[in-house]
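User: I'm preparing a small set of examples for a lab meeting where we compare how different chains pack in three dimensions. I only have the primary sequence for this one, and I'd like the structure in token form so I can line it up with the others. Please keep the answer compact; I'll paste it straight into my notes.
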Amino acid sequence: MGKARRKDVKEAEARLKRKEEQKKRKLISREVNLERASAKREQNRQILVVTEGTHTEISYLEHFQIPGVTVTPVGLGMSTMKLVNEVERIKQYQRTAFGKIFDEVWVAFDHDDFPDFMLAIDAARAKGYKIACSNQAFEYWLLLHFKDHQGQAMNRSVYCRELNDLMGKIRTGVGYDGDSKIITDDIFELLLSINPNTGRRRITEAYNRAKAIADYKTNNGTPWEESVTYVYELIKSLFPDIK
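Assistant: Understood. Below is the structure token output for the 243-residue chain.
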């Protein structure tokens, strides 16, 4: 073989070697990036909460600023099966528009008098969604921050008056507007405040009250009997150490 031929062979071998090294570096880089992306997702849990209400639940959830957790609340203004059937579309939109891939998906709607309430609960669970629903309404969860209610029947029409009576005794001027249905900064601050009589945060007391009611009703075979709320399970997901 002539010198020129041997030179061409060596150059070809060198090019092939460089290509193999480049391919290896790209593979290593891709693996590192995937590990970083995975680690980032573990550090920042993405939670989607699709709610019936477009005001109360949304303004409540938007107040939470939790390190390592991003909560995306979406209010649809629809309930039960209509809401459950829309969740997949919401997930896809959030992924396409904002690149969000959710670690948990929750639904939150009220019982009211909807005949398909239990059908919607079962359908949501079958799709892998978590449940933060209430009977009769979400405001019952708020009420439990200030009242040691035992889960007896309570019509939603009295929630607003009860809330305002209880909050007004704690801080003058703080009230829940049943028309706007917005959780203001003052209300949210009160929900997270410490009960001076117990030394415990009111959200912790609400969690324990709601859990005790749900456990009691579940043990009696009537998990959705009025009054009950499973919003506490969503709070447990946001704050795993709460008890």
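A couple of notes for your slides: Residues 25-41 have pLDDT under 50 and may be disordered. The radius of gyration is 26 Å.

User: Perfect, thanks.
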